[in-house]
Amino acid sequence: MARCLIGCGSNLGKRREQLDRALELLRFMPGVELTAVSRFRETVPVGGPAAQGPFLNGACLIETELPPRAVLDMLAAVENTLQRDRSERWGPRTIDLDLLLYDDVVVDTAELTVPHPRMATRRFVLEPAAEIARDLPYPTGSCTVGDLLDNISDPHPFVTIVGVPGSGAAEVAAAVADATLSRLIHAPVPLPLTEGRPSAAFARWRQTLAEWSAALEGGRRGDDASHGLVADYWCGSLAAAAATGLDADESAAFRAEVAATQASVRAPTAAILLTVDAVTLEERIAFRSGGGRDHSTVFGDLQPTAVLCDTAGDTVPQLLALQQRLVRSLRCAGERCPSTPKAVVAVSGVDLARAAGEAIAAVEAML
After folding, report:
1. E strand residue ranges, the chain
2. What are the two backbone dihedrals, phi and then psi, of residue 243, each rounded to the nearest 5 degrees?
3. Going by DSSP bridges, is the β-strand pair 270-275/229-231 parallel, antiparallel, or unpaired?
4. Residues involved in catalysis
């Protein structure tokens, strides 16, 4: 029997009655045993259309022999019974049932992602979840549900926006800082890219690491004057970026230096990972290497790439390969990677305005 954590919410109609009805339907589903139900909490909507009514949110724990996809289908059937309208993303709803965790199973397909991809920064999810399942493992963060709640309970959270040059990290970080009244920290020097590849100059990578970490320390000294910190870089990404440009000995030494530096600076509360595709990168490189560089600072982190005056043909594959290494780095958690954020939220950076909105929603949900 697998233990499944389910998030429950409603902000249309008779909210309490609809939540009770949903739980009653779950209770009598074949192959399902409802073992715990949290208290309901009224919460302010985060993200989505304006002028929505407040939610009632809760969580429940079930045990089942059903596989993860069958659990998802069962939850959708309950939502359909209670006339859930899915026409508007993050819009108001009579009922919302989310599969948050399925034991310690990790699923990442087009149809289903478990653990739920945004639960790690959502207080309205974690508070009721921790009430009934504090010790339930959160496998992608190598921690528990209770650890996730404790993690976002820092009164001055530190959020890092992570992405390859051209992903929009600087622009999204600025939007998040402005919306949340946080202190913004820009990378003091760019990622040392030349010829579409990390530079082989070991000293240059070490100097970048020193300057990046010093900027974080400087921002930390004043974080009590703001709601928190937002940085448009993550020191851990340097090890991933330098991996293909250093020889084996230098790479091992640099990874050790990055790890030691991360242990000495404040670990991010959460990371927002921006991902982009080849077409988007090609368009942004063309903008940056053309007239856009003369009248705009947008995607300025692409400027140091030496090949921008030529074509994006060599640059884009290198940036996409770096993006994959960043994804792997942010999925490394626990004792082996103690400085990796517990909470990582992936956001598409293809539409920059939408990416900023989703990142803002992820951070506001922590508060």
Report:
1. 2-10, 32-37, 41-43, 55-64, 96-102, 107-108, 113-114, 137-138, 143-144, 158-162, 183-185, 193-194, 197-198, 229-231, 270-275, 343-348
2. -60, -35
3. unpaired
4. 84, 93, 96, 98
Closest CA to 160 of 230, 56, 241: 230
Torsion angle defined by CA atoms of residues 20, 26, 28 and 29, in that order, rounded to the nearest 10 degrees: 160
Tokens of 61: 């724990």
168, 183 contact by CB (below 8 A): no
Could you read off the pLDDT tens digit of each residue along the chain, which spans 367 residues? 999 999 999 999 999 999 999 999 999 999 999 999 999 999 999 887 877 999 999 999 999 999 999 999 999 999 999 988 776 777 789 999 999 999 999 999 999 999 999 999 999 999 999 999 999 999 999 899 999 999 999 888 999 999 999 999 999 999 999 999 999 999 999 887 654 455 557 888 999 999 999 999 876 655 554 679 999 999 999 999 888 878 889 889 999 999 999 988 888 999 999 999 999 999 998 888 776 666 678 898 887 654 444 444 678 888 999 999 999 999 876 666 777 899 999 999 999 999 999 999 999 999 8
Complete domains list, the chain, with CATH: 2-148 (3.30.70.560), 158-364 (3.40.50.300)
Beta strands in 65-165 (DSSP E): 96-102, 107-108, 113-114, 137-138, 143-144, 158-162
Tokens of 64: 């089942």
15 Cβ contact list (under 8 Å, min separation 6): 55, 56
* Amino acid sitting at position 97: L
Angle between helical axes of 68-81 and 15-27 (0-180°, round to 10): 140
